[in-house]
Amino acid sequence: MKTILNFILLFAIVLPCSGLTQQDLDQIERLMDKKLEPIKIDIAYIKGKMATKDDIIEVRKDFTEEMNAFRQEIYAKIDSTNTRIDSLYNASIAVWTAIFIAIIAAIFGGPIFSRWLEKREERKNAVVKMREMALELVKDKPEWAEAYKNIGLL
Predict the structure, then answer these.
(1) Mean pLDDT of 124-131
(2) 154: CB partners within 8 A, 6+ apart
(3) Is the per-residue pLDDT at 107 higher than 90?
(4) Per-residue pLDDT at 16 exceeds 90
(5) Sign of the C-alpha dihedral computed for residues 32, 37, 42 and 48 taken in this order
(6) How confident is the model at residue 4 (pLDDT cuts 50, 70, 90)?
(7) pTM above 0.70, yes or no
(8) What gap in Å lies between CA 69 and CA 63, rounded to an integer?
């Protein structure tokens, strides 16, 4: 059985080459080289483009540096945004405080202000009455005119 297999194997190997001459085999080899040459060039180009471990580490370093710069930029923007939010928060507190004080002043300030105006009018009327009395007294006694001028009644 082994001998039959050996004969079949021998015929299988020899049979394809039995009708070909050496010239035919050389021509086939040249054609195969000619067809495989662009593929070999492409493989060499791809091998040249293949990244090595050092290339990957370098790219990773560059990427890490860019990410750190981006993080710093984002942190700076966050800080400036937080500062603006804090200032707006403080401004809104000031506005709400002013509104509250205005409301309280409108509620309680009206009666207080009206009483102050009444007292002011009373004082003004009292000063006017004093001036009128001073003018009448000056008509009767002109020597007092100088004294009334000094105190501001004339």
Answers:
(1) 89
(2) 131, 134, 135, 138, 145, 148
(3) no
(4) no
(5) positive
(6) confident
(7) no
(8) 10
Instruction: Provide the pLDDT for residue 101.
Output: 92
The 3 state secondary structure assigned to the chain is CHHHHHHHHHHHHHHHHHCCCHHHHHHHHHHHHHHHHHHHHHHHHHHHHCCCHHHHHHHHHHHHHHHHHHHHHHHHHHHHHHHHHHHHHHHHHHHHHHHHHHHHHHHHHHHHHHHHHHHHHHHHHHHHHHHHHHHHHHHHCHHHHHHHHHHCCC
Q: Which residues lie below 8 Å from residue 4, measured CB to CB, with a gap of 6+?
A: none
Residue type, position 70, single letter: F
Look-up: residue for tokens 């750190």?
A: 68
Whole-angstrom Cα distance, residue 47 to residue 44?
5
The tokens describing 51, both together, are: 């990244």
Can you give the pLDDT at residue 77? Answer: 93
Q: Extract the tokens encoding 85.
A: 């939010």
Q: What's the token pair of residue 83?
A: 């500062």
Structure-model confidence comparison of residues 128 and 14, the more confident one: 128
Residue indicated by tokens 């293949």: 50
Q: What average pLDDT score do residues 4-8 get?
A: 69
